[in-house]
Amino acid sequence: DVVLGQYVGDPSGEGDSKLGYLDDPTVPKGSCTPTFATAVLYVQNERWDGIPFILRCGKALNERKAEVRLQFTDVPGDIFAGRCQRNELVVRVQPDEAIYLKMMTKRPGVFFSPEETELDLTYRSRYK
């Protein structure tokens, strides 16, 4: 699955946010050049079957970052009645290099209460 797009200006914005891609004087009028892309890829083998690899990039986004985000398949047998998000491994290249694993865990106690937990290795906080 792939989505392509082109950014447009925000009439109520200020400065550069007010201008769209076609407002740039160096861009040909009526250009259809994509400035945004999102792709969901799947690896066809037993180990990665059903796990989406989501790639997203673009110009003039709200934040500048480069990361790889792997979402793992849902755990069979839904004992938390749909209150869990998918476990996720994130490798962030920029800004602030980091590797972290977001996973759903059961809160200690007798009730089935899930919570999101992170294992976090942020390069800046680890190597000061």
From TrEMBL:
UniProt pathway annotation: Carbohydrate degradation; pentose phosphate pathway
PANTHER family (UniProt xref): GLUCOSE-6-PHOSPHATE 1-DEHYDROGENASE (PTHR23429:SF0), GLUCOSE-6-PHOSPHATE 1-DEHYDROGENASE G6PD (PTHR23429)
Catalytic activity: D-glucose 6-phosphate + NADP(+) = 6-phospho-D-glucono-1,5-lactone + NADPH + H(+)
GO cellular component: cytosol
E.C. no: 1.1.1.49
Name this polypeptide is given: glucose-6-phosphate dehydrogenase (NADP(+))
UniProt-listed GO biological process terms: glucose metabolic process; pentose-phosphate shunt, oxidative branch
InterPro entries with a match to the protein in the record: G6P_DH, G6P_DH_C
Protein source organism: Fundulus notatus (blackstripe topminnow)
